[in-house]
């Protein structure tokens, strides 16, 4: 009698559920967020924009890996943002402040050279959102965003309401997807080197297996002479 090839519905359902749960876990894995506040008139203790960003990302299930405050000095901003990007526990970087047209505001000028790729539509979308919320005052809000070293970077206004809108309307809904897209893949050179190493290991195993087989058949590895035992003597 032929055995049935139909799959067990319970087993299939269980497999589907497991795959779904696995996918769900991947989509709920928290990102590490680095928040940098840039202002002369604020500190970490008196920073409504930073506090709002911290709360919004935390409520969305992400982890704020660090928060920093720095004055709007070009070199200081560039240095601290660069250090945050280099942190292993940070997947996304968000700055707040130093983006207006005031002479002392240098965030955009400091961060832009660090970006490998620009997210051009971010500023356009955020300007539209800010215009709907605040009218023509949005004209003075300069923003930028991009990707560097596999990490999305966003530069937001220092206004708490504007920063919160940027986070809730644009960044949080897309940050996990952007982080996945920006994450560096294994380079072709690394893959080739790994394949070469595996090939060498396989060749070594084949050689050892051949030597073991010749020894088992009474032949010394590397020679054609048989090892014969006659009356206890080896000739």
UniProtKB/TrEMBL annotation:
One of its GO terms (cellular component) is cytosol. Pfam families: MoCF_biosynth. Residues 34-178 form the MoaB/Mog domain. InterPro entries: MoaB, MoaB/Mog-like_dom_sf, MoaB/Mog_dom. It comes from the Archaea. SMART domains: MoCF_biosynth. One of its GO terms (biological process) is Mo-molybdopterin cofactor biosynthetic process. Residues 226-235 have a biased composition (Acidic residues). Residues 1-34, 182-235 are annotated as: Disordered. Residues 205-216 have a biased composition (Basic and acidic residues). Residues 11-22 have a biased composition (Low complexity). This is Molybdenum cofactor synthesis protein.
């Amino acid at each position: 009698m032929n055995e049935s090839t139909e799959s067990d519905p319970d087993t299939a359902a269980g497999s589907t559920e497991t795959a779904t749960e696995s996918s769900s876990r991947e989509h709920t894995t928290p990102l590490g967020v680095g928040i940098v506040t840039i202002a002369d008139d604020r500190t970490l203790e008196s920073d409504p924009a930073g506090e709002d960003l911290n709360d919004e990302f935390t409520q969305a299930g992400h982890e704020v890996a660090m928060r920093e405050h720095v004055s709007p000095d070009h070199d200081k901003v560039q240095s601290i943002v660069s250090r945050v990007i280099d942190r292993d526990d940070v997947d996304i970087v968000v700055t707040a402040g130093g983006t207006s047209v005031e002479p002392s505001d240098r965030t955009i000028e400091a961060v832009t050279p660090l970006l490998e790729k620009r997210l051009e539509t971010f500023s356009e979308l955020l300007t539209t959102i800010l215009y709907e919320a605040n009218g023509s005052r949005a004209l003075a809000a300069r923003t930028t965003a991009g990707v560097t070293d596999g990490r999305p970077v966003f530069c937001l206004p220092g206004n708490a309401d504007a920063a919160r809108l940027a986070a809730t309307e644009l960044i949080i809904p897309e940050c996990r997807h952007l982080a996945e897209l920006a994450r560096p893949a294994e380079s072709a050179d690394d893959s080739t080197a790994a394949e070469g190493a595996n090939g060498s290991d396989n060749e070594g195993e084949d050689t050892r297996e051949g030597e073991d087989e010749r020894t088992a058949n009474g032949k010394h590895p590397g020679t054609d002479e048989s090892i014969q035992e006659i009356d206890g003597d080896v000739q």
